[in-house]
Design a protein that fits this description.
Shape: globular
Helix content: 25-40%
Number of strands: 15
Strand content: 5-15%
Radius of gyration: 24 Å
Bound molecules: iron/sulfur cluster
Number of helices: 16
Distance between the termini: 49 Å
């Protein structure tokens, strides 16, 4: 046996009472014994006394020999001259998804809206709502759709998202765009999956019928219990929104039982993830995703103390997920379930977190391209427009910033599962794409990955069905079995 074995890149941690060891290159995790942990710690310890001494202090000779053999068998030990880090992955590009910013108008005044900071200044805020016109014209939308079909080349499965402001403010425009898209599908043989993200306040029977008839996916932004929703997501003029939004959302939930995803935002000082998840599932949403508020406005952005609470609650939800699955019930808390599924089977290494600027582009009301909706109106992230075409400089910069090359990510154990985090979170935290939001987004994501691996260590392979997410597509599905926290 090599007298000086070197460990390949790994992450050793304890979560939910289990000792887990993750191999960065193979993306496989293992539940290990205290003896294996002791050997891994000793191998990583660079202090001067000999390896034999280091290991023998914690484990018997036999345990040490078995642990080393185990680590060698599972590819944790590097041979002489071999690199301990895996070779870099090649990124992919090619536009396949377009976000149409159909309007910047909105009938709500969410406290954390990144487009404006509340009522004063709402119409002149520098980011999303800084676009030069309030509503997209059909001509701009039509040219955007043409761009998507042309830019996607031979790719046949495309995506189109209606975004805002509140996209249903521009309902008449959407009603014109949809038949135009379907006609292009028929002419080209391509398929477009359409969706929109709404605050729910303008849903009614007619809108829901339109969404169902046209197979348009719909995610609702809603913050959960009445007190949170009313505080953080008031209507224009400061009126409470829960009582008017929920009956309208129920129209959609009735039409698509168990298949409508909810997205909630966590704002500073109001961190109660279990309550949000439980409440939204009790309303009939098919899944719940929560996202922390990062960046402006500073008074709603989550702090380090808020993140501590999120981690604690995330672990409670992980334990609840295990308990639910053992009783044959789903707990579709998307943040965790997605990662449980991702760490269950070995997948391709991620080079980026999302497709922004590579496969995914936003088109603003005034016909300009941006990496995604959150960058719209920021001049330094503009990527050309419909007249001049897509400017590839920012796209190349983002394509080059793979997790293997990006400072801050290239030494992170979670990089191939994470992909580098949201670009906008990085810009909000440090003003640049190059440095991730380490203090908030990274802490939450790495902790969620640890929880996901611990959940998998608790569950059986046959639990895959119970872990599946409901479809966010429009086809009605059977109601979910319900979840209890
Ligand atoms: S964004 Fe954070 S968690 Fe993700 S790979 Fe980079 S450093 Fe790691
Ligand atoms: S950059 Fe962030 S907000 Fe934009 S698409 Fe990616 S994850 Fe979403």
């Amino acid at each position: 046996m090599d007298p000086h074995p070197r460990l390949r890149e790994h992450h050793l941690f304890e979560r939910m009472g289990r000792i887990l060891l993750y191999n960065v290159a193979t993306m496989v995790f293992y539940e290990v014994t205290p003896a294996v942990r002791a050997v891994v710690v000793a191998l990583g310890n660079q202090r001067s006394y000999s390896l034999g001494d280091r290991i023998r202090r914690r484990t018997s000779r036999r345990e040490t020999r078995d642990a080393l053999e185990y680590l060698r068998r599972e590819h944790f030990l590097a041979c002489d001259g071999e690199s301990v880090t895996p070779p870099p992955q090649q990124p992919r590009r090619g536009v396949r998804h377009l976000e149409l910013m159909v309007t910047h108008a909105c009938n709500m005044r969410c406290r954390y809206c990144y487009g404006a900071h509340g009522e004063p200044g709402f119409d002149t805020a520098p980011h999303l709502y800084g676009a030069t016109s309030s509503g997209m014209t059909m001509e701009t939308a039509r040219r955007g759709v043409d761009f998507l079909f042309d830019a996607s080349g031979r790719c046949r499965d495309l995506g189109l998202v209606f975004f805002g402001g509140e996209p249903l403010v521009a309902r008449r425009l959407i009603e014109q765009v949809v038949p135009y898209v379907r006609a292009k599908e028929a002419a080209t043989g391509k398929k477009v999956s359409m969706s929109l993200s709404t605050n729910g306040s303008l849903l009614d029977r007619e809108v829901v019928d339109f969404l169902v008839r046209n197979r348009i996916g719909c995610q609702v932004s809603i913050d959960g219990p009445k007190s949170l929703q009313d505080t953080n997501r008031p209507l224009r003029g400061g009126l409470a929104s829960y009582e008017s939004v929920v009956p309208r959302v129920r129209e959609l939930l009735r039409a698509r039982p168990g298949a409508v995803p909810a997205r909630a935002t966590l704002a500073h000082g109001a961190i109660d993830v279990p309550a949000v998840v439980e409440h939204l599932l009790s309303l009939g949403f098919g899944s719940v995703q929560v996202e922390p508020c990062i960046g402006e406005p500073a008074e709603t952005a989550v702090t380090a103390a808020d993140v501590d609470r999120v981690l604690e609650q995330q672990e409670q939800l992980a334990a609840a997920l295990v308990a639910n699955v053992r009783r044959g019930r789903r707990l579709p808390y998307t943040n965790l379930v997605r990662l449980v599924r991702q760490t269950r089977v070995v997948r391709q290494r991620l080079t980026h977190y999302c497709g922004a600027a590579r496969s995914y582009i936003a088109l603003s009301q005034d016909g300009a391209f941006y990496p995604c909706h959150r960058f719209v109106g920021m001049p330094e992230y503009r990527m050309g427009d419909l007249d001049s075409g897509l400017d590839g400089a920012l796209q190349r910069r983002i394509v080059d910033l793979t997790v293997d090359r990006r400072p801050g990510c290239r030494d992170c154990w979670a990089r191939y599962l994470c992909g580098g985090g949201c670009w906008k979170h990085a810009v909000d935290a440090h003003g640049s794409l190059e440095t991730p939001d380490t203090e908030r987004s990274c802490r939450i994501l790495r902790h969620a990955l640890e929880c996901a691996m611990a959940v998998n260590a608790e569950l059986a392979v046959s639990d895959a069905d119970v872990l599946s997410q409901p479809s966010s597509r429009p086809e009605p599905r059977a109601a979910s079995a319900g979840a209890r926290l």
